[in-house]
Amino acid sequence: MGLNNQWMQRDLSVLWHPCTQMKDHEHMPVIPIQRGEGVWLHDFEGNRYLDAVSSWWVNIFGHANPYINQRVKDQLDNLEHVILAGFSHQPVIELSERLVNITPAPLTRCFYADNGSSCIEVALKMSFHYWLNTGKPEKKRFITLSNSYHGETLATLSVGDVALYKETYEPLLMSVITVPSPDCYEREAGATWEEHSRMMFEHMERALEQNHEEVAAVIVEPLIQCAGGMRMYHPVYLKLLREACDRYDVHLIHDEIAVGFGRTGSLFACEQADISPDFLCLSKALTGGYLPMAVCMTTDKMYEAFYDDYVTMRAFLHSHSYTGNPLACAAALATLDLFEQTDVIAANRVLAEHMKKATAHFVDHPHVAEVRQTGMVLAIEMIQDKANRTPYPWQERRGIRVYEHALKNEALLRPLGSVVYFMPPYVITPDQIDHLASVAWEGIQLATRD
Ligand SMILES: *Cc1c(COP(=O)(O)O)cnc(C)c1O
Q1: Ligand 1 mean position to 62 CA, how many Å?
Q2: How far apart are CA 186 and CA 240, in angstroms?
Q3: Which is deepest, 20, 27, 65, 301, by most CB within 10 Å?
């Protein structure tokens, strides 16, 4: 038995993998990875895989990046962790200062969590608690978009809307107000993204008008609903939403966990709408894909509403054991250094243009409904019947055929249902993009053949 197989057997006898029907592994291998280098993941038998999904959207500067490695190693020799209540440390202070500097002006406070879902919970709790502290306890509901995704804990599933993850747990969830998404895949033929996004805002306007007195916040994934199949919309929606939230006295939560740090073509997606949310949630690429950490950034106004004598019980008494972990902060500081050392956003513009060119012909494929792109995310929607826009039945799992084909051809492409997408680390080269494009093309051919 080969080394890969040995590790796979040991894995399957003790692990339970995330987001996986474990029975699938009776016929699909678990791929043990021995080491990573740049965009490549290497297994134990000399095979390699181009990480086109940035290991679940976290990695931006490549695996085992020498610079990030060194900063984490240096930190390791000084301080691995310390309680963040009552105590502090250099990396978390420096990181917070830098985050405040690079995000829109009203965001002045950093509250840390140790994963994206927890970070969203922080924002939801803080928003509700703000209204409680300011004498509006009736504001306790949330408005969310259809097809949105905000994590896997019960509260984040509640404000999410991807049936695959949510439906089973519905009896456990809180009730929210769900407004149709501005998703531009659904636009009328001939309509621009901007026109469609603008038109769809009417639903949001109405929901706010009718419910604002009991609504604490609106939560959105700016520009791309990633887990919802890389569905995209125009920044004008965010602009209209900011104005409406101000008019109706409702908080705006931006979940930039997946899109923050350059993914959409600007450092943060909110920049493209020239607005600032009341809560900005960041995670994933925050540490360059190295360590689990998240930050919920908010304003002085929010902070002040909690600042009082202890006995008033206005404090935000939320915590996680690993809040502000120094190793994770060191990885985040190194990641920010890399953004400063080169113009990553400009370099990404060139790579994004290359991704666009490399996949320009896909739209002519009889089973491709759309190729869409926002910055460093490019998605190809496979479809059963192009003329009638009939999707493939989900039970057919067409995407898995693309996944399996890619594995045989040095690529890790992990479609979301029938949506094949590239969301690679920013250190990918044009040649590697060409390789991904040809593997994806062949994979789509195979997956849609019958
Ligand atoms: C991944 C993700 C989350 C959840 O983050 P976890 O660290 O996986 O809990 C929340 N929102 C968005 C938009 C995400 O992509």
Answers
A1: 20
A2: 19
A3: 65
